[in-house]
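Exercise: predict the fold of this chain.
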Amino acid sequence: MTNHATNELNRTQAAQILIKDDAAANEAALELVRKDKLREVRAGHDGTWAAHPGLIPAIREVFEGHLGGRPNQIGDAAEHEGASVREEDLIQPPRGARTVDGLRLNVRVGVQYLAAWLAGSGSVPLYNLMEDAATAEISRVQNWQWLRHGAALDAGGVEVRATPELLARVVEEEMARVEAEVGHERFRKGRYAEAGRIFSRQCTTPELDDFLTLDAYNLIVAHHPGASPCKL
């Protein structure tokens, strides 16, 4: 089973965006980006992506500093970190704690991403990270898997089982938290309630849905008659 640490790693791999009006927090985010890009270039990457245009100078500095004027690292493949990875290493299940906090974060991020997606946004800044459908997809699949297996979750030192009843309570509480964070008026005018229903259903369905946004297309069409989902 996947774990909370896996999802947190996915969320923090250079997905940071610039933080306005907080120089210390912004520098901390840039430092995380630098460390992650250094990890990538040491692993043999010749190029990378940036979650925000403002990150490009810091990323370029890391890559150009490591490459030292070389166009690529093809000739150094055997020296890169991870070059000795074996087949059995690739199929090892991830290690780490499974937590109720992880369940909550999955709900909060998944619902907010879906709400933005229903309103027409494909990439959404959430908690100073740039999120896309991949993060929301991991969030709902991880929740579904935990519920499917009745995984033991750490709730501050107390072990609880992942159940539909636990998820229902978490969704109710996290929806209230999201409303407090974004404001009542934005929450009311947004599509958070629809997103919450979709996300909850997909986390508890007996068979895992193929993809997060498939059944949400119908809601887009219902709100915009004549719209073509494939263009969204």
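Check your answer against the key: The chain has two domains: 4-90, 100-231.
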